[in-house]
Every structure is written in C-alpha cells, then in structure tokens.
Specification:
about 240 residues; alpha/beta; Rossmann fold; 4-stranded antiparallel beta sheet; globular
Length: about 240
C-alpha cells in the first residue's frame, strides 16, 4: 500500500491443535497484510478459524508454522515476556463481554494496563482516556451503574490508555442493541479517521462489517475472500460520545 510497511503481515500461517490423538487444523496457510490506518473486519461462520486468527494477531497464541510479523518484527522468535510487553504496549483489546472488574470504578478499570506497566500519572491518563470516549462524567461509576454501551466505551478507553497503534476488537457489539452498536462503531471510526488508528474487528454481523473499509472472509481455516468495501457506512456519534 503505497510503500507503507504493514502493521500485520501473515505468510502461510498454520495453526494445529492436538486433541488427544486427533489433530485439528484451525488455520491452513493464511496469508494477508494489514496496513496503518486500515479498518478491517474478519468474518466467517462458527468454527471457521477467525477466533484463532484473532488470538494469533493479538500475540495470545503462536502459529504452528508460517510467519507472523507485527510492525515488521517476527513474533515467532519472541519469548513470552516480549510477547506480553507487545500485548500491553502496542495492542488495545476490546472484547464482547467488556471484561470490566465489577468492584472497580470506570477510571480504576481504565487504569489497570498502566498499573501492570508501572506507568506514571495513571489517574490523569485514565481520566483523559475516558474523556476521549465521552465518559469523563461517569468516571466514578461502577460497571453495574453503566449501560452496556457505556461499559463497552469504558473497555475502549482501557484499550486506548497505553496509546496503542492497533485495536483488536472481538465481537465488540455482540451484546449491544442497535443504537449502542452504532455508538461503538462511530467511536472506532473516529479513532481511525482522526488519529490514524488501525482497527481489526471480528464480527458475524454484516451491518457491522459494512462500517469497515475491508473484509477478510475466513472459511474452514482458509482466507476465502479479501474484499474492499467501496463505500463504508458512517455511524452517527451522539455529541456526548465525541472524541
């Protein structure tokens, strides 16, 4: 893409799981590249390998064979400590179930990656991250006091607090109603358009994938189709959710 180095580059990646005497080949030689500031959806039926692919891209697992380069670095040669450092500093994860700690306030949840990293100015940075997603006034609320959409925005703020270059979102709208889903997609689009964030999102919903600029379709552990979305849908962001 115009001489840019890829953020994510997979070459003939295979992933095989051993279940007793049975080998299950979850990925069967997948190759593609994702470039800075792209918005990419990964789609496929249940069991297609898309969750395995997300785990590999997030350095949560390693390929059985093939090459995975993240920002030009070969991850297969990294030890566990180096992979953990990359997960914490370069990648922001957003999950379907939010993964917020119930006993903690929104700002305390957002602070967690900073705590693990031993970073300074944790409270200040966490509050700034919540402001970015329009939740500054809700910083002292606990998850049960927030709507589903607000909880997911807290999760996005937590993903952003370490200033990653890549957001990996696994079904981030799966538990949300239509209006809240639009708010989350609007936030991701704003991050992409205004800040150049690279966003990779796993979804089974065609209307969510339509917000992305590109769709990778996975089936039976193979990349079935890599298609460009010519006119991505632009989600409407309510004023209080502006970055």
């Amino acid at each position: 893409m115009d001489g840019q180095a890829a953020v994510i580059e997979l070459r003939q990646v295979r992933k095989v799981y051993q279940t007793g005497a049975i080998e299950v080949e979850a990925l069967r030689g997948v190759s593609f590249a994702i470039f800075p500031a792209e918005m990419v959806a990964v789609m496929g039926p249940s069991g297609s390998g898309k969750s395995t692919l997300m785990n590999l891209m997030g350095c949560l697992d390693r390929p059985t064979s093939g090459s995975y380069r993240l920002a030009g670095e070969e991850t297969g040669q990294m030890n566990d400590d180096r992979l953990a450092e990359i997960r914490n500093r370069r990648i922001g994860f957003v999950f379907q179930s939010y993964n917020l700690l119930a006993r903690m306030t929104a700002v305390e949840n957002v602070e967690l990656p900073l705590v693990y990293a031993g970073a300074p100015r944790r409270r200040e940075r966490a509050l700034t991250s919540l402001e970015r997603v329009g939740l500054g006034p809700r910083a002292r609320h606990r998850p049960f006091e927030l709507s589903g959409g607000e909880q997911q925005r807290v999760a996005i703020a937590r993903a952003l607090v370490m200033e990653p270059s890549l957001i990996l979102a696994d079904e981030p709208t799966g538990n949300l109603d239509t209006r809240s889903s639009e708010e989350i997609m609007a936030l991701l689009q704003e991050l992409n358009e205004r800040e150049g964030m690279t966003v990779v999102l796993v979804t089974h919903e065609a209307d969510i994938a339509a917000h992305m600029g590109r769709i990778l379709r996975i089936r039976d552990g193979l990349l079935e189709r890599d298609e460009v979305v010519s006119n991505p849908r632009h989600a409407a962001l309510r004023p209080e959710g502006k970055l």
